[in-house]
């Protein structure tokens, strides 16, 4: 099947359709004779599909008049707005769409408001009042009997003409009994199957519990082995650490002994030369006796110096007084 359509170039140079495609009439040789006889043939010179002029020249397709650019932009803007509106509606529909119900269930409308209201058509009503007389005794409403229509007809049916209970009830009874037995057998088989399933489930649960207990026991055993391994490794590391410390201590002690073997005599001799090792009697004399002796001597010297200074002062004063008296006498004689 072939399609035919008209097209033209847009400003960007691309082909766009200006009409909807349509089906081209079939030209196969298998068309019925009636359609071949009804086709109208025309002169080939007037056929628009035949090219006029030089067939060797390049055939140029006539370009239709270009549409207005503003109109094209307006149509594109309208198309974009329509597409955006359609996309927004689809997104809103997808966003507000309720997920499909589960198998065996269905959706129902449920009110989520605080106060439930009856969903019904609201009818606008208005209240009016009027004054009426007091109620009077109302007679009983007569029984409604619809008007009779049609014609009455009757026929005589003899006994046994329409229904024989013994003959007609036998297949119904067979069906009922058969269905009852079949349903009973199905129920018994279902009960046996449920019992087997429960037994299998109990056996599976027992096996699963045993396997879980065995897994827990193996996990606990592995945990104990891991802890014991870690403890043994830590203990061995501690033993190695202690052995290394003991070896380092022994090495340090031997090195100290070797280093101090010649150091101790030199130190003692140096200390003895510097006076750290002294004679207690000499030390007592130097520290206790000689300082007290020197202090007493110093006190005695200070006392003698004081007495000498006092004597010198008295002599100086007496000499000054005598010189003054002699000077006064000399002045008086002159």
From TrEMBL:
Residues 1-38 are annotated as: Disordered. Residues 209-253 form a coiled coil. Its main location: cytoplasm. Keywords: Cell projection, Cilium, Coiled coil, Cytoplasm, Cytoskeleton, Flagellum, Phosphoprotein. Residues 22-38 have a biased composition (Basic and acidic residues). Pfam families: Radial_spoke_3 (PF06098). The keyword Protein biosynthesis does not apply. It is found in: Cytoplasm, Cytoskeleton, Flagellum axoneme. PANTHER family: FLAGELLAR RADIAL SPOKE PROTEIN 3, RADIAL SPOKE HEAD PROTEIN 3 HOMOLOG. This is Radial spoke head protein 3 homolog. It comes from Austrofundulus limnaeus. The gene is rsph3.
């Amino acid at each position: 099947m072939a399609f035919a359509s008209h097209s033209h170039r847009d400003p960007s140079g691309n082909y766009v359709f200006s009409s909807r495609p349509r089906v081209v009439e079939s030209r196969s040789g298998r068309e019925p004779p009636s359609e071949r006889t009804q086709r109208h043939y025309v002169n080939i010179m007037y056929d628009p599909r035949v090219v006029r002029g030089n067939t060797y020249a390049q055939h140029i397709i006539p370009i239709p008049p270009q549409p207005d650019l503003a109109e094209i932009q307006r149509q594109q803007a309208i198309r974009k707005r329509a597409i955006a509106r359609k996309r927004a509606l689809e997104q809103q529909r997808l966003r507000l769409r309720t997920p499909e119900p589960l198998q065996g269930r269905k959706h129902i409308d449920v009110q989520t408001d605080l106060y439930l209201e009856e969903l019904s058509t609201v009818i606008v009503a208005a209240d009016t009042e009027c004054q009426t007389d007091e109620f009077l005794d109302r007679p009983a409403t007569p029984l409604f009997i619809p008007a009779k229509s049609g014609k009455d007809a009757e026929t005589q049916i003899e006994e046994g003409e329409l229904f024989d209970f013994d003959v007609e009830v036998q297949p119904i009874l067979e069906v009922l009994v058969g269905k009852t037995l079949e349903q009973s057998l199905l129920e018994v088989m279902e009960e046996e199957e449920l019992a087997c399933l429960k037994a299998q489930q109990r056996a599976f649960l027992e096996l699963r519990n045993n396997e879980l207990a065995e897994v827990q026991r193996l996990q606990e055993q592995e945990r104990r082995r891991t802890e014991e391994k870690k403890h043994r490794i830590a203990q061995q590391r501690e033993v190695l650490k202690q052995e290394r410390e003991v070896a380092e201590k022994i090495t340090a002690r031997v090195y100290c002994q070797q280093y101090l073997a010649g150091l101790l005599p030199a130190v003692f001799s140096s200390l003895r030369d510097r006076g750290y090792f002294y004679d207690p009697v000499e030390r007592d004399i130097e520290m206790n006796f000689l300082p007290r002796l020197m202090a007493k001597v110093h006190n005695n010297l200070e006392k003698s110096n004081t007495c000498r200074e006092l004597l010198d002062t008295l002599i100086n004063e007496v000499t000054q007084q005598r010189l003054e008296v002699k000077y006064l006498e000399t002045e008086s004689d002159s």
